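Researcher: We're teaching a course module on how sequence relates to structure. For the next exercise, students receive a sequence and then see the predicted structure as tokens, so they can try to spot secondary structure elements on their own. Here is the exercise chain.
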Amino acid sequence: MQNAPLHDASRVTHFRCDPAEVDGNTIRVRSSAHIGDEPFMAFTEVIELPASLADADAAVAAETVKLLSLAVSLSYFKAFAPAIYAVPEGLTPQQRVFITELISHGLGEFAHVNDLPEVLDTRIEAPILDDPSSVVPAGMSGSGAPMEIRRPLVAVGGGKDSIVSIDVMRRAGLDYGLFAVNAKRPMIDTAAVAGRPLESATRTLDPQLFDLNRSGAPNGHVPVTAINSLIALLTAMAAGYDAVVFSNEASASYGNLNWHGRFINHQWSKSNEFEGLLRETLPEGAPGYFSVLRPLTEICIARRFAELTEFHGVVTSCNRAFRIHDDTPKRWCGDCPKCRFVFLMLAPFMSKEQLLTIFEGNDMLSDATQREGFFELMGADGIAKPFECVGEPDECRVALSLLAAHPDWAKHEVLTDPRFAALVLPAEAQDRVFSWRNETHFLPTELEGFVRAVS
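Model: And here is the predicted structure for the students to work with:
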């Protein structure tokens, strides 16, 4: 089965999520592709937690590992994209909802890029299981009252958002730890500046996946935040944390485009919808799970980050600097939608000298070859938001508008470009993007005041 010829991959009829194996702090997530009744290729992904699950509640850990298996398996499922996704050990009704949504929304961008709309309607085959216990939304007590958070685990990616979450945690006086998967230098340096322990997990993909990709198998975006969230939850169980905190903001729920009757959102697994789905699916007794920045826009977060100068020397948000098997120390590529977006968000709130120090001397607004990229971020002429973790077009237009009143930027050549001048927004629109978003959020009551101080 392992040595099956890759040219047969297109004949795969169904993909199977198999039971994982747990040994202390090692989780082996297993999945397999099948042609009819014949196995074609089996995969094993290895996840190493920073602490052992031996002392965690066995039932809670097992149910959470199962959710992790469902999420991880999609990295391999997409290489075949067959009509059927099977879970022979069975699914509870809520687990079925979970994997259905992970495929239909979490693989939305993948389906769009590869022109595979049928992926969004993949058939789930699994025996029906009873719920193992009553499900209580994570971060809530059994009575439905907000849970008191004592020792949260905060996911860090090295970017401005998680740094602002760190600021919230320390102002709230919480005994927090930090978390990363396959920690790289910006994450390690962020933890060092914060002076907090970094709980680092490792995720090693099955190398056969890279062989499939090189052979031309369908490839693309997967809901990686769903995977990292579940690894974080298991780390919290193993290391004695009572909640997992992410830094997904209001803008993450703003999608990219409509396609085949579906709204495609690159950031779906960072959205409020996914956050609620995972909380509803986690077993009772799991650590809390919420995004502390959910009611805030990116521009609010950027404004607060600008004040956290001790982190300016370590911050990075460039995904090209975080390739899964690339250890380059480079912090910014300086020519991608994410670099342009962060540059634009920070520019109104700090001096030009401070900003160029962060971006290693690269003034992207002066680079004529990047003008179209900035234009794209602002949604001009109906251009769809790029498939990247960037904010809403109005936030970008407001940032541009604020530059016109900034002493270091007011005479910058980009503001003389009539296409950009036409995108400047009036004062009332500027106020709107700084407002607290009133969508449903899952902030613990004791943290809301500290988060409101950011807006």
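Model: If you want an answer key for the exercise: Confidence is low (pLDDT under 50) at residues 134-145. Residues 113 and 220 are 7 Å apart (CA to CA).
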